TrEMBL record:
<keyword id="KW-0648">Protein biosynthesis</keyword>
<dbReference type="GO" id="GO:0006353">
    <property type="term" value="P:DNA-templated transcription termination"/>
</dbReference>
<keyword id="KW-0805">Transcription regulation</keyword>
<dbReference type="InterPro" id="IPR036555">
    <property type="entry name" value="NusA_N_sf"/>
</dbReference>
<keyword id="KW-0694">RNA-binding</keyword>
<comment type="similarity">
    <text>Belongs to the NusA family.</text>
</comment>
<protein>
    <recommendedName>
        <fullName>Transcription termination/antitermination protein NusA</fullName>
    </recommendedName>
</protein>
<dbReference type="InterPro" id="IPR013735">
    <property type="entry name" value="TF_NusA_N"/>
</dbReference>
<keyword id="KW-0963">Cytoplasm</keyword>
<dbReference type="InterPro" id="IPR025249">
    <property type="entry name" value="TF_NusA_KH_1st"/>
</dbReference>
<comment type="function">
    <text>Participates in both transcription termination and antitermination.</text>
</comment>
<dbReference type="GO" id="GO:0003700">
    <property type="term" value="F:DNA-binding transcription factor activity"/>
</dbReference>
<feature type="region of interest" description="Disordered">
    <location>
        <begin position="367"/>
        <end position="386"/>
    </location>
</feature>
<dbReference type="GO" id="GO:0005829">
    <property type="term" value="C:cytosol"/>
</dbReference>
<dbReference type="GO" id="GO:0031564">
    <property type="term" value="P:transcription antitermination"/>
</dbReference>
<keyword id="KW-0806">Transcription termination</keyword>
<dbReference type="Pfam" id="PF08529">
    <property type="entry name" value="NusA_N"/>
</dbReference>
């Protein structure tokens, strides 16, 4: 058995183990390699025919020559006289196959075939891995913390390591090697170097998927989570609606005595260092559950909770901008610590929200009124002048 066959058998052995690989692809790859080796040697490959013997995992290379009266190219043609010397049955126009020695093409063809095969196999394996993880995009997967570097925590999901970046981690959460963790798969990419799977624990959708897993009414669609805005490890707002008039959406999500919310929160483990003792103490992510409504003004009103709202006004020119007027005493509550409440409400509703206190708003109104009056007066004056 020549080198080529040995390498073929080795390649097919790998194939048998990796059921995903398409054998035809491998055969095509080798055929291509042998054809190009033939062409390099003889300057053309029209006369070349390659056959594959399934049992021996062996390739045979033939040169096909046509029987002619007068030979112009001995690669492509054979004289009738020479053909008859092989068999008296041959006549003009017949095509005769002559076996070439595969070793004639030397190790170059074998190597190039092997490289092509390996490349095809890698590409197919990538494709298989990509498809396997692509179907889990938008889902929670459980993995094992493998290793860390400056940029990522690498989480083993089975056949590859997913990447958990800093912004996808919950501030205050820390892990050790071999920890089992749940992650949300938000992006799967197929690159020439391999398949990249990006996962997150801070993603708003992670909360949504956990609620589906922990709360039966969310899983079966009775209560729908319409939107989530999240500052992971600290605070989240979830807008919900019920598709059954007998089921209260907020009550269902919160659960009896807060049991459902507790189940959701127990999936996160942020800690902070206590300034007095220097010890790490657990922190709970606060989840505000908000009633989703179709009317944008009412939805924004609900989203600003726990602060009260006097009114919601929309911008005529910018349809996605809203001004929310709140009592003076509730201004800081409406804005929230470092602007968090209004920021989460804006993400939740999809509106850019400006918060104004009632007295600020009155001042603004008075100024606008004054400006209008001045404009009207100047119009009257210019009319008289004419």
């Amino acid at each position: 058995m020549d080198t080529m066959s040995k390498e073929m058998l080795e390649a097919f052995r790998i194939l048998e183990e990796e059921k995903h690989i398409n054998k035809e692809d491998i055969i095509d790859a080798v055929t291509e390699s042998l054809k190009s080796a033939y062409k390099r040697r003889y300057g053309q490959s029209e006369s070349c025919v390659i056959e594959f013997n399934e049992k021996k995992a062996d390739f045979t290379v033939y040169t096909v020559r046509e029987v002619v009266d007068e030979v112009f190219d001995s690669r492509l043609e054979i004289s009738l006289k020479d053909a008859l010397a092989i068999s008296s049955a041959y006549e003009l126009g017949d095509k005769i196959r002559f076996e070439e020695s595969v070793t004639e093409f030397g190790r170059v063809a074998a190597q190039s075939a092997k490289q092509t095969i390996m490349e095809k196999m890698r590409r197919q394996m990538r494709e298989v891995t990509f498809n396997e993880y692509k179907q889990h995009e938008g889902e929670i997967m459980t993995g094992t913390v493998e290793r860390f570097d400056q940029r990522f925590i690498y989480v083993n999901l089975g056949s590859l390591e997913a990447q958990l970046s800093h912004q996808d981690q919950i501030p205050g959460e820390s892990f050790k090697s071999h920890d089992m963790i749940d992650v949300y798969v938000y992006k799967v990419e197929n690159n020439p170097k391999g398949v990249n799977v990006f996962v997150s624990r801070s993603h708003p959708e992670f909360i949504k998927r956990i609620m589906e897993r922990e709360i039966p009414e969310v899983f079966d669609g009775t209560v729908e989570i319409m939107s989530v805005s999240r500052e992971a490890g600290d605070r989240t707002k979830v807008a919900v609606r019920s598709h059954n008039s007998n089921v209260d959406a907020i009550g269902t999500i919160v659960g009896r005595g807060g049991s459902n919310i507790k189940k959701v929160i127990s999936n996160f483990h942020p800690k902070r260092v206590d300034a007095k003792t220097g010890l790490e103490i657990p922190v709970e992510e606060n989840i505000d559950v908000i009633q989703w409504v179709e009317d944008p003004a009412e939805f924004i009103y609900n989203a600003i909770a726990p602060a009260e709202v006097d009114m919601v006004l929309f911008d005529d020119e910018d349809t996605k901008r809203a001004t929310v007027v709140v009592p003076d005493s509730k201004l800081s509550l409406a804005i929230g610590r470092r602007g968090q409440n209004v920021r989460l409400a804006a993400h939740l509703t999809g509106y850019r929200i400006d918060i104004k206190s009632a007295s600020e708003y009155e001042k603004m109104e008075a100024q606008e009124l004054q400006t209008e009056e001045v404009a009207q007066e100047s119009e009257v004056i210019s009319d008289k002048a004419e």
